[in-house]
Amino acid sequence: MAPPSSLNSKLKVQLKLSISRLRMVQQKDTAIAKQQRRQMAHLLELGKEESARIRVENIIRSDISTELLEILELYCELLLARIGLLEAKECDPGLEEPIKSIIYAAPRTDIKELQQARQLLVEKYGKEFALAAVENSDGKVAERVLKKLKVEPPDPGLVTLYLKEIARTYGVDWPKAERTHNYDSNGDDDEPDGGQAVETLEEPLTANELSKATPPRDLGPKSPVSIAPPSPSTDNLSPRVKLPGPPELKPSAKMSGLKKQTPPTQAQSDSKGKDDDDLRNKNVVGGKIPDADELARRFAALKK
């Protein structure tokens, strides 16, 4: 028998290798299960339900095996974290369940590193300890490990749940039988359950009818101010809306008469102003300013 220190160091190395190997196998099994699920979805899409129900049992068994490997990985990590407690000759009560679970489940897996770690544990604690773990005579093996290692066909309800989840994940319309039954029960014919005939829909309008139709009033942008016109009555058959605004100034009769009869003084002043403008235009020929001789001649004419 090897000394305890060397046995613990070997066990520590094997536990690390077992953890690494268990994680790798879990990732591989998960990738394979994903491919199998895609194949199940294809079978459901083709309507091969019986074949899918048989093959999905392999996926269920693969998932159970992956869960078992995950549990054993956790036990290996626990033993690695408490490696100092393994130096004692007697098994610590807190480590009895993980150690006996590994001894019980390791031969039922394909992990060589885990089987070598099991051999080191058997060598450390003796054959009687290992025999009690294999037979589970004291019931120390974890119940979930025993459940994962049971070999029995899966429950039909579990198979149906797996198929429904696969169909939902990959967008397959399944189960079709239930949907068809629901349509039949609700009445998928021309008459509803009450026996009343379904009203026929109106025929669509043609292009000519649409061109003659009156467009809705609310078509286009609306004004922020809207005033409802008054309703017609016997006194006012066509009422109009009057908006507030500046009143229109109409000339009265008196003002219009004054415009027609222009006073003579105003007419004379208008004619005099017109003559001054004509004289001014004559003096300034071509719009030029007169020189000094022209101005002296004009002043002489004014003095006379």
Overview of the molecule:
The protein has 304 residues and is an all-alpha fold. The chain is 61% helix and 0% strand. The chain contains 12 helices and no strands. Helix 4 crosses helix 5. The longest helix is centred in the N-terminal third of the chain and has 43 residues. The chain is elongated, with a radius of gyration of 55 Å. The termini are far apart.
- Radius of gyration from the CA trace? 55 Å
Helix content: 55-70%
Secondary-structure-based class equals mainly alpha
Termini separation comes to: 164 Å
- Based on Cα principal axes, name the global outline: elongated
Low-pLDDT residue intervals, each spanning 5 or more residues = 187-201
Strand content: under 5%
Mean pLDDT: 77
User: What is the helix/strand order?
Assistant: HHHHHHHHHHHH
Oligomer: single chain
Main beta sheet: strand number and arrangement? none
Number of helices: 12
How many beta-strand segments? 0
